[in-house]
Write a structure and sequence with these properties.
Layout: E1 10-17, H1 20-31, E2 34-38, E3 41-45, E4 51-57, E5 69-74, H2 78-87, E6 91-92, E7 97-98, E8 104-109, E9 115-120
Parallel strand pairs: 1-4, 5-9
Antiparallel strand pairs: 1-5, 2-3, 3-4, 6-8, 7-8, 8-9
Length: 124
Amino acid sequence: MSEHKPVGTIMGLDLTVPDAEKVRDFYTSVVGWEVEMLGDDYVMKSPSGEWVGGVCHRRGENADLPPVWLAYIAVADLDSSLAACTAGGGRALTPIKGGEGEARYCVIEDPAGAIIALLQQGPA
């Protein structure tokens, strides 16, 4: 998720689980994804090398993330989008993560109960 994309674009997918190794191996076996390390987590790639998503450990900053394939959608202003989320009947499931001068995101639940993350991209 390093390149800037237009607002409203799905920036990426992550799955955050307690046993990332087991889930990583599941997807390599079931769908043929290949693995690249990114810190302690895993970048999942198609056999042609195209980035597909991430499988992450549910610990540290990720300890409160739900074990779902989480899509990250680019927003222009995270604070404004969170206010609109609440006003529209949604709710924040996590605090804002990230900080000044870097990407910031928050996991939300929409009025129907679907979970997604809003991502304000950092400086280019």
